[in-house]
Structure formats: structure tokens, C-alpha cells
């Protein structure tokens, strides 16, 4: 282990007492200091791996920096600018502020310094500060610094809450101690006294803004360890509030101040240590001040922390579950501090509806139906400390009352509920009244999402429904899901409530219309609550989830028919989404197969609403108008089959209504012009393309025809969804799909979706959706324009796409963040005319091109292609025939296809001759 103190002492002793040149001083010190810092950080990393103590690591790094800066300071003031008889103006105190002031540093943290002067800057003080900073800058350290007098610090602190917070954590390092003591005393008397309420309000507003910026949920699957909800900054905020309000100096003092119990203090320390451990490992692993736990980092950090696979969860999933449980604990501590601040009148009480809450409490207090509960400043509280011990069902009743009367729950009641979780045992779980209250809450018309989330965060929900407890804080290690499983389920219920209430009727008109005619409303709600309940188990989560539903249904109070419906919905909750996105909806066999599983109109309605709730709750940007149109088409096509040919709106009528709406949007078109245009498209186009895109396509095609162009492209980008759309209008061509995908591959573009249509007069209208490569729209549009130009030139015979792809540098082997086993399904029962190839595997730029070239080399005709991407997992479905137009039934031919497809995923399939493509 390095002897840092001895090394620094030798370095200082070796500096000439008469040194007067700042440049020579830096040349002498910087190389040695770099070595000492590198060795000290390496030792800190080794101790972190060995002892697994994040706080110890943060303090060790802080101590290292203290010693380095003290050596620099001593060299400057005792060698370079020595003042044997200093005047009043030749005094300075070096003070650590911010995180450095707290005595903790991550490997990549900023060094925040305050150079404190007695009254104003002098030439000596300016020279000292400059010399110190130049050495720190030469060491490539990130230094935040300020040079102020005591009076300036107080003035700035009164005016700026960020500076006030930095001064609150000021820590004397070296120099004139009397200056620092004066600042501390006057700061307390002139700034802090009498301003606690102002500070608390400001810090909580600041927290809300920070959390909103980094992600409003603490269950985002790529959390920010420092600034995210439930991260280190939240713990910092709690301590700032306590330090400012109660004048404590150490975390141990929080118990004496009455803010925490000893158990809660231990929880605070456990959260702080874990988060610091993760943060330090992230900085060490990346070599920079990275604060976001990205997917690429998570496996590395899990390995560094010693996690291993267990119980159906991978090592990284177990690590991230631990992380989210810690984030939840930080949330509990935040609620405790807020409640205490409110009790001491330093924070205004939050209520769901402030005006209505006051009106209700003053003029119309609700009947809480139990002496164990009372209103406390407009919120629901317990009237006795033993309310839950006296009747454990009250732990469920608390949240039922909150939803029933639209009451926020008092933090003290939440705190007591968390302490009382052990009261929820087997007898409470099977208690008829407890389950009646829970089912009533679950199916409430009052949008119970907020109450259920609160119930989850206190731990009551997972304790009452142990199967739900298994998925609390569980992440799914993929790019598709944005939230933990429990948060996803609760958000799904929120989407369902919005559909039912009419709040989302404009976005989901069909779902809003059908939900009013659903008979099994309770079954639908319970199915939404349970659809992913079995995630993280070794068996298929849909099958295992159906078994859980059959167990829980009777317990919740559902009858046999409702329970069977819930189990069916959970088992098949992915069916409608997968069929809509990866099957040819114009093929009667697709609809027939889907209808054969669904079997009834009631189930079709239930599955539609469940599917929408599931997709919408995955994360921002996942739900699109494209998916809405596909689901709507699948619903109407299946409705015809299940109703014996009778549908709410017949297919031909739907096409006519869609065309009428488009005609209204194209008011500047003549009737003859519109009729000619409408006749160019087959029914699948009208049923699968959303209204906004239909308008754009119509104007795009009209413009191309008017300009006499047989090949035209259009580019659009959408930053909110992180995609760019490329639309191509061209004569049909047997190699068109290969040309499109090859041009994208040559530009490094990753295709995540596609819509492919042919027209009655032999043209195609294809839309390719690419992942964005640039943050700025201008840069992204330039890339899209290059791809579009390559497509146009290839279709005109000016270039060969195969040459462009071949000219690309080969992909470098790099560690893969995600592992997706490639799979190929060859099915001759899904279509009456074609063989259906369903190919899934790890997505990458150029994958679709490589697949189409591989299929082309086998002389397969692609009649329809359906491209979908679920995060890192690509699912590409091709409807194919041989060159004579027949299905692929021979076993040896199917084996050849399988080998060719698997070779693509093994990196051997690129550069083949492109595939043929026909329209739908």
C-alpha cells in the first residue's frame, strides 16, 4: 500500500526554500503528485473491492485530496510566496465546500474550494490562489472555486440558495482558522437564524426540479445514482434540511434531534453506504464522473459488487433489484423528514387538492367508518398508535379509505404502516374483509394508481400479495422496458383508469368505446394487475402468471368464471400485440388463427384493453399511432369472424369511412383526383396506416407524380421517440427491400420498424423507421438525406448497394451488453399461401439487410415483411414462397434456411446477393 503522507512530505521537503518561479514549482510538483494520486486511487479501489464499504472509499479519496491540496498550499505559502510577518491582507483560509465539504469524494468528483479572505483581494492573495489553482489544473482535476471575503460570502449566501447550501457544508482545510470561525459564526447568526422554512421549501422545490429532469420515477431502469429519485442527492437534501433546521453536524445527531429513530438512522447509513459503493465503482469502471447506471454498465457493476444469478434472476437483475429497494428506502426517509418538517411548521402540508381538502375538513368531514382513523390537517391518519396491532386489516383499510375519500395519507400513518408489516401474515391475507377492501380499491373508479403506488412503497402491497412482493423493484434487463415490473403493473392500472374514465378517449377511441360494454370489468382490472406477476421465474411468465391468477382470484373474491377469465388474459396477454405487429393482417389465416384462440367477442374486448394498457405502461414513446392502427385493424378483422360475419363496422365500410376522412383533409383535391388516388391503394393500406401518415403520403405521392418522378423519398425525424422515418415511393422491384435495408446498413442505420405496401398500378410505398444517430435534428436529417440519396441512386441503377455495404469497415468485436439467443420458426399453418419465417435475435445495424440477402440467395420470394424491435430484440417475420409460388415444405430445404439464418447471427451472412421482395 502506498505511504501517501511520507511521499508528500518528501516532495515538500525537496522543494527549495528559495523557489520563486511558479512554473518551476509546478514542473517539480505535478509529476510526483500525479503518481501519488494515481497510486492513492488504485489503493482506494482495491480497498473498495476488498472491504465493500462505499463510505470508507469516499472518505479515503477525500483524505487523499486533502493531503494533496495541503501539500500544494504549503509549497505555495511557505516556498513560493512566503510571508514571515503577514499583514492583515496576507491572510487566507482554504475551505472545502459542496460534496468535498462533506468529507466524501467519488473518483471523478469535482473539488469545490473557497479561498476565504479577511476583507478584499490583495496581490499576495491573488498570487497564492492562482498558484494553487494552476497546480490543480495541471493535475487535470475538475476544480470549482470561489475567492470571497467573509462579508461577500454572507451577502451571496443570502441571495443564492445554492451558495447558501455550499456554505452550510463548508469544512476548514488549512490557513487562517480565525477567518473560517468568523464565517461560521456569522453565517449561523446572520443567514440561517429564522430562515429554516424558506430553506426547506427551496430545497424541496430544487429536488422536485432535479428529479423531474433526471426521471420522475425512482424505478427507471437506467437510474442516475447521484441526481435521480432515490439517489445520493436525495440523502444529501435530507441532511441539509436537518443540518439547517436542527443545527446538527453529524448523521448520528439526527436521532438526538428527534428526526429519526435508531433503526431509521441505520437505514439512512445503509442507503448512503450502498449508493456510495455503487457510485465509486461506476467512476472507477468508466474512468470518468459517470452518474447514470446505463445498461452497458450494469453487468460490470454487478460483477464488481459480487452478485451472481439466483432463483431465475440474472446477476445484473439481482443487483438492480437491490438498487431499487435502496431507492425505495430513500423515499421512505424523505417522507419521514417531510413529516417532521411539517410538524415543526417549517414546511407546508401537501394535499391532493388543497382547496377541496380545507373545504371538506371544515364543512363536510368524511365518515371514516372507524374510530381508528382521523383527519390530520386534511390528510388521513391513525387516531391511536395501536390501530394496526388492534386490527391488522386496518393496514388495508388505510389505503381503501384514502382512495374512497380522495385523501392523502399522513406520513406518520405511512411510517407506522411500514413498521407494522409483520402483522400481515397468512390470516390477514385470507381474511375476507381484507380482500374485499383490496379488490374494491383495485377496481375503484377513482383512478387508484396513486394510492396503490403508495401502498407499494410502504411495503403493504407486497406483504399482502406475496407474489407481487417477489417482483417489487425487479428490473428486466432489456432496452424495451423503462420501469421495474411492479411500477409497470401499477402504471398499467393507471392507463386502464384513464381509458375507462374517458380521459384517454381521444387517444384510444376504440378501447374507450368497447370498455363500456365489457361485462367482466373486475376480471379485466385484476388481469391488468397480474399480467406480469410471474416475471423473473424460470418458467414462461405468462403460463406461470396464469397459475398465480387461478390461485389469487378466489382469494380476492372473484367467482370461478371471473378467475378463469383472468387466468386466460394473463396467459395470452402478449398474443394481440405480437399478432398485430408481426403477422400479415390481410391474410385470412392470420385472423382465423387469432380468432381461434380468442373465441369470444368479450375476450377480444378484454384483450384489446389489456394490450393497450400493457404497451402504454412500458415507457415513453413505446405506444405509437402505428401500433394503434394495427391493433384496431386486428380487432375489427377478428370481430367479423367471431360475430359470424357481423361487425360493428364492416371492413368495406371502414375503408370507405377512412377515405371520407382523408378526402376532408385534402380539401384542395378535385373529386376525380382523389378517386384516382384512392383506387391506387389496396384495403390493407387504408386499414393499417394511421390518419396523419395517410395525409402526408397522399401529398408526397401527388407531388412526385406532378414532378414526373418515378422514384422519390421523404425523411422525417421524431426526437421524442428517438427515431427517423424514411418513406420511399418507387416502381415495384424484386430487390427493393434489399436496396432499402442495404442503404440503411451502409450508413450504419438500425431499422426498428417498417411498413411495406404495393399499389394497384405497380408502385410501392415503403416506410422504414430508423433509430436516431444524432441528438440534433439538423445532423440527423443530413444522415437521412444521405441514405435517401443512396436509395434513389441504386433504384436508378447508378450505384450498387452491395458495393456500398462491402465498403463499410467490418464491425469490431466488442462486448455485448445484451444476450439474445437467435431463433427461427418455420410455420406453414399460419398462412394459406406462404410459409411464415419468424426470426428473432439480437438487433444490430444491418441485420435486416443480411437476413434479406441470405433469403435471396436461397431463391425465396418475400411477399410480405413485418419488422418489429423490442428494445435490443429484433423480431422479423417474412412471408415467403419458392420461385414457383409454393410453400417451403421439404425438410431439407427448411434445414438449409435454418443454417443460413443462424449464420447471419454468427456474423457470416453479410455481403450476399440481395433478396427479392413483392408487395402485400
Automatic annotation (TrEMBL):
Protein name: Bifunctional uridylyltransferase/uridylyl-removing enzyme
Record gene name: glnD
Keyword Methyltransferase part of the UniProt annotation: no
Keywords: Hydrolase, Magnesium, Multifunctional enzyme, Nucleotidyltransferase, Repeat, Transferase
Sequence ranges assigned to domain ACT in this UniProt record: 725-802, 836-912
Main function: Modifies, by uridylylation and deuridylylation, the PII regulatory proteins (GlnB and homologs), in response to the nitrogen status of the cell that GlnD senses through the glutamine level. Under low glutamine levels, catalyzes the conversion of the PII proteins and UTP to PII-UMP and PPi, while under higher glutamine levels, GlnD hydrolyzes PII-UMP to PII and UMP (deuridylylation). Thus, controls uridylylation state and activity of the PII proteins, and plays an important role in the regulation of nitrogen metabolism.
Summary of activators and inhibitors of this protein: Uridylyltransferase (UTase) activity is inhibited by glutamine, while glutamine activates uridylyl-removing (UR) activity.
Cofactor(s) required, per the database record: Mg(2+)
Comment, domains: Has four distinct domains: an N-terminal nucleotidyltransferase (NT) domain responsible for UTase activity, a central HD domain that encodes UR activity, and two C-terminal ACT domains that seem to have a role in glutamine sensing.
Provenance organism: Methylobacterium isbiliense
SMART domains: HDc
Amino acid at each position: 500500500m502506498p505511504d501517501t503522507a511520507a511521499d508528500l512530505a518528501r516532495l515538500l521537503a525537496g522543494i527549495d526554500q528559495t523557489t520563486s518561479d511558479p512554473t518551476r514549482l509546478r514542473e517539480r510538483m505535478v509529476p510526483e503528485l500525479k503518481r501519488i494520486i494515481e497510486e492513492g486511487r488504485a489503493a482506494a479501489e482495491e480497498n473498495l473491492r476488498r472491504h465493500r464499504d462505499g463510505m470508507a472509499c469516499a472518505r479515503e479519496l477525500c483524505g487523499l485530496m486533502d493531503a494533496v491540496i495541503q501539500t500544494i498550499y504549503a509549497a505555495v505559502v511557505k516556498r513560493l510566496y512566503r510571508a514571515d510577518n503577514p499583514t492583515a491582507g496576507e491572510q487566507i483560509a482554504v475551505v472545502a465546500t459542496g460534496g468535498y465539504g462533506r468529507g466524501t469524494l467519488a473518483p471523478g468528483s469535482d473539488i469545490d474550494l473557497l479561498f476565504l479572505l479577511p476583507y478584499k483581494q490583495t496581490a499576495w492573495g491573488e498570487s497564492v490562489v492562482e498558484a494553487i489553482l494552476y497546480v490543480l489544473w495541471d493535475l487535470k482535476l475538475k476544480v470549482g472555486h470561489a475567492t470571497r471575503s467573509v462579508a461577500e460570502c454572507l451577502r451571496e449566501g443570502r441571495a443564492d440558495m445554492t451558495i447558501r447550501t455550499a456554505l452550510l457544508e463548508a469544512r476548514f482545510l488549512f490557513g487562517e482558522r480565525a477567518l473560517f470561525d468568523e464565517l461560521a459564526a456569522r453565517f449561523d447568526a446572520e443567514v440561517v437564524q429564522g430562515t429554516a422554512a424558506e430553506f426547506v421549501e427551496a430545497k424541496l422545490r430544487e429536488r422536485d426540479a432535479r428529479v423531474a429532469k433526471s426521471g420522475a420515477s425512482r424505478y427507471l431502469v437506467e437510474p442516475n445514482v447521484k441526481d435521480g429519485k432515490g439517489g445520493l442527492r436525495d440523502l444529501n437534501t435530507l441532511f441539509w434540511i436537518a443540518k439547517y433546521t436542527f443545527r446538527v453536524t453529524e448523521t448520528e445527531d439526527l436521532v438526538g434531534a428527534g428526526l429519526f429513530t435508531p433503526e431509521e438512522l441505520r437505514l439512512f447509513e445503509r442507503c448512503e453506504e450502498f449508493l456510495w459503493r455503487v457510485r465509486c465503482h461506476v467512476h472507477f469502471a468508466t474512468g470518468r464522473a459517470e452518474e447514470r447506471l446505463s445498461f452497458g454498465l450494469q453487468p460490470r457493476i454487478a460483477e464488481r459488487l459480487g452478485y451472481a444469478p439466483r432463483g431465475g434472476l440474472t446477476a445484473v437483475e439481482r443487483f438492480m433489484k437491490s438498487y431499487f429497494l435502496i431507492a425505495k428506502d430513500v423515499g421512505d426517509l424523505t417522507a419521514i423528514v417531510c413529516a417532521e418538517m411539517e410538524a415543526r411548521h417549517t414546511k407546508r402540508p401537501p394535499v391532493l387538492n388543497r382547496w377541496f381538502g380545507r373545504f371538506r375538513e371544515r364543512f363536510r368531514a368524511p365518515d371514516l367508518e372507524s374510530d381508528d382513523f382521523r383527519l390530520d390537517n386534511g390528510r388521513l391518519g391513525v387516531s391511536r398508535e395501536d390501530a394496526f396491532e388492534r386490527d391488522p386489516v386496518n393496514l388495508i383499510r388505510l389505503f381503501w379509505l384514502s382512495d374512497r375519500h380522495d385523501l392523502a395519507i399522513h406520513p406518520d400513518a405511512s411510517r407506522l404502516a411500514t413498521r407494522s408489516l409483520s402483522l400481515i401474515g397468512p390470516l390477514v391475507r385470507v381474511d375476507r374483509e381484507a380482500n374485499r377492501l383490496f379488490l374494491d380499491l383495485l377496481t375503484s373508479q377513482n383512478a387508484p394508481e396513486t394510492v396503490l403506488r403508495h401502498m407499494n412503497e410502504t411495503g403493504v402491497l407486497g406483504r399482502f400479495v406475496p407474489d407481487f412482493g417477489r417482483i417489487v423493484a425487479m428490473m428486466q434487463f432489456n432496452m424495451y422496458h423503462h420501469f421495474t415490473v411492479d411500477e409497470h403493473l401499477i402504471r398499467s392500472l393507471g392507463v386502464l383508469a384513464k381509458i375507462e374514465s374517458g380521459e384517454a378517449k381521444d387517444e384510444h377511441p376504440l378501447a374507450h368505446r368497447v370498455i363500456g360494454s365489457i361485462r367482466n370489468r373486475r376480471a379485466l382490472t385484476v388481469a391488468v394487475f397480474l399480467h406480469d406477476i410471474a416475471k423473473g421465474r424460470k418458467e414462461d411468465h405468462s403460463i406461470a402468471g396464469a397459475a398465480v391468477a387461478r390461485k389469487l382470484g378466489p382469494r380476492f373474491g372473484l367467482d370461478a368464471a371471473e378467475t378463469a377469465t383472468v387466468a386466460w388474459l394473463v396467459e395470452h396477454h402478449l398474443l394481440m400485440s405480437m399478432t398485430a405487429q408481426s403477422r400479415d393482417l390481410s391474410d385470412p389465416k392470420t385472423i382465423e388463427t387469432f380468432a381461434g384462440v380468442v373465441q369470444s367477442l368479450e375476450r377480444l374486448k378484454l384483450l384489446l384493453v389489456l394490450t393497450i394498457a400493457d404497451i402504454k405502461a412500458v415507457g415513453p414513446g413505446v405506444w405509437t399511432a402505428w401500433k394503434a392502427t394495427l391493433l384496431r385493424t386486428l380487432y375489427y378483422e377478428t370481430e367479423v369472424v367471431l360475430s359470424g360475419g357481423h361487425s360493428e363496422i364492416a371492413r368495406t365500410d371502414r375503408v370507405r369511412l377512412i377515405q371520407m376522412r382523408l378526402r376532408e383533409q385534402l380539401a384542395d383535391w378535385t373529386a376525380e383526383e382523389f378517386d384516382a388516388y384512392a383506387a391506387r391503394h389496396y384495403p390493407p393500406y387504408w386499414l393499417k396506416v394511421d390518419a396523419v401518415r395517410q395525409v402526408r403520403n397522399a401529398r408526397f405521392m401527388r407531388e412526385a407524380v406532378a414532378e414526373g418522378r418515378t422514384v422519390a423519398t421523404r425523411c422525417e425525424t421524431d426526437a421524442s421517440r428517438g427515431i427517423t422515418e424514411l418513406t420511399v415511393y418507387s416502381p415495384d422491384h424484386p430487390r427493393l427491400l434489399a436496396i432499402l435495408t442495404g442503404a440503411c446498413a451502409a450508413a450504419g442505420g438500425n431499422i426498428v420498424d417498417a411498413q411495406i405496401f404495393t399499389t394497384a398500378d405497380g408502385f410501392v410505398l415503403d416506410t422504414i423507421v430508423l433509430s436516431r444517430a444524432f441528438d440534433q435534428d439538423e445532423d440527423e436529417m443530413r444522415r437521412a438525406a444521405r441514405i435517401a440519396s443512396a436509395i434513389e441512386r441504386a433504384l436508378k441503377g447508378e450505384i450498387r448497394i452491395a458495393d456500398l455495404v462491402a465498403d463499410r469497415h467490418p464491425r469490431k468485436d466488442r462486448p455485448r451488453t445484451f444476450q439474445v439467443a437467435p431463433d427461427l420458426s418455420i410455420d406453414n399453418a399460419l398462412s394459406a399461401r406462404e410459409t411464415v419465417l419468424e426470426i428473432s435475435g439480437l438487433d444490430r445495424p444491418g441485420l435486416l439487410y443480411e437476413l434479406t440477402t441470405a433469403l435471396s440467395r436461397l431463391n425465396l420470394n418475400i411477399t410480405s415483411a413485418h419488422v418489429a424491435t423490442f428494445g435490443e430484440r429484433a423480431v422479423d417475420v417474412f412471408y415467403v414462397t419458392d420461385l414457383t409460388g409454393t410453400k417451403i415444405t421439404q425438410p431439407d430445404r427448411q434445414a438449409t434456411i435454418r443454417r443460413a439464418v443462424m449464420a447471419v447471427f454468427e456474423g457470416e451472412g453479410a455481403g450476399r446477393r440481395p433478396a427479392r421482395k413483392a408487395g402485400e
